[in-house]
Amino acid sequence: MKASRRVLAFALLLIAPLAMVQAEDHGHGHHAGDIRVDNPWSRPTPPGTPVGVGYLTLRNTGDQKITLIGADSPRAGHVSIHRTVMQEGVMRMQPLADGLEIAPGGEQVFKPHGHHLMLEQLNKPLAEGERVPVTLQFRGGQTLQVELQVRSLDAAEPMDHSGMKH
Ligand SMILES: [Cu+2]
Asked: How far is the CA of 116 from the centre of ligand 1 (A)?
């Protein structure tokens, strides 16, 4: 009994610093070095839909350019960085093959009808309220882990992303 209490106390000591790190993430902000991500979010997907989206604000707070070169998630087989372009009156998504460069002090807002993360080969639909872990990868080897908060479609803009063509 005494021994198990000691183990429990030790476990609490381990948990406490983790809880502090979590508290810093409050407000859905994440940062690593000069890279800052705010408001990572997503939308629920209907059953059978193989792709989901990821939106966020990516900011470069340093004095060197940063380049987002990729991302991955345990919820998706593949994650791409897409931009949206208008072609002959149709919105189309294009992968950013060379990544996305952000100048010192600059930012890129990933949002509906604009840049977005494309979560492909979802292992199951994204559910409202879920937090989807995504690791962003930057040139130079830096990574940043964020959680997309899956918001209800009610909060969505009138036009649906799924109508877009790749
Ligand atoms: Cu896309």
From this structure: 6
Rounded CA separation 134/144 (Å) = 8
State the amino acid at position 82 in one-letter form: H
CA–CA distances in Å: residue 53 to residues 9, 22, 59, 101, 160 = 42, 24, 19, 20, 11
**The pLDDT of residue 26:** 43
150 CA distance to ligand 1 centroid (A)? 17
Q: What is the pTM of this model?
A: 0.76
- pLDDT per position as a tens digit, 83-121: 999 999 999 999 998 999 999 999 999 999 999 999 999
Q: State which amino acid sits at residue 56.
A: L
Ligand 1: distance of its center to the CA of 52 in Å?
8
